[in-house]
Amino acid sequence: MVSNRFLIKRLLLLVPVLLGVATFVFIILHLAPGDPARVILGQRASQARVLELREELGLDDPLWVQYLRFLLDAAQFDFGQSYTVARGQAVRSVLATRLPVTIELALYGQFIGLLLGIPLGIISAVKQDSVVDHLGRIGALSGISIPIYWSGPMLILLFSTFLGIFPASGRIGSTIFLPDHWSLFGMELPLTGMVTVDTLLLGDIGAFISASRHLFLPAATIGIYSLALISRMMRSSMLEVVRQDYMRTARAKGQGARITILKHGLRNALIPVVTVVGIQFGTLLGGAVLTETVFGIGGIGTTLVEAINATDYTLVQGTVLMFALLFTLVNLAVDMTYSYLDPRIQQ
After folding, report:
1. How far are the Cα atoms of 192, 279, 330, 347 from residue 333, in angstroms, in the given order?
2. Is the pTM of this model over 0.85?
3. Exposed, middle or buried, 54 (CB in 10 Å: 0-12/13-18/19+)?
């Protein structure tokens, strides 16, 4: 069990991290060349209109006033409006629409990595220097080395163009339209924005199958890298654990090899793996931009790139801060998992 003191301590440590990221984003964007008001209105706008917009946006206020206002708004998840990418739409609405897309993709990619990477790593460690171990290491090295912008198109060519098993782009069939809400005990609740979850909530099995087929190739693309990294880490960690004295003692008492590994070795071997999984999941959230681009999925990664190219300052600020929040929450989950696997960490 995780103690309340340990949880509160970790939550309090998140505050300076988020504050530091917010400050860094504010400084970088204000040091960037160009006038945000001029970018919003365009080069043909009159100087009087530019000055008027600067006053509306508070850009004429002292820097410390702008900074405090920015922190107060960010604490309320109010990042203003998008002036270029989604004209006139609140940044909060843009993030609420596109963030579930990336989260869903990252979750399924990480699930594929965990589902296959942990067993492969254990088998490679137990059968060290065997044919299975050599093949596993070659496969893991290949998975880490192959870039997404190459593996994604290759998967499309194989499974979509040649075999015709999975769709090449999109999130769900073009003829399927999902409502905005689902009913629970007579109440109308909003959908999550993750199509596989939403189709299950709606009870539409056909739509769920369509969403799963569309999601398989992009999830497999980022899952290959996750699988390779997790299997390598699991192998190294398990090799270190199986050589410990308590593992030899358990075997000397007559306990079977499988039970010894699963009961005594796996829990300790998972601790460094959890670190990799936590960091990697945060990386998948930010690095999904290539996968989203290849498969035509409009997630938060592509949104950030569009906002940077269009110098949409408010959308850049909101997106980066949302990434920071997700990273800190993932690190919090990693810390909680640590304390569960090894209660001594709470001391």
Report:
1. 21, 11, 5, 18
2. no
3. middle
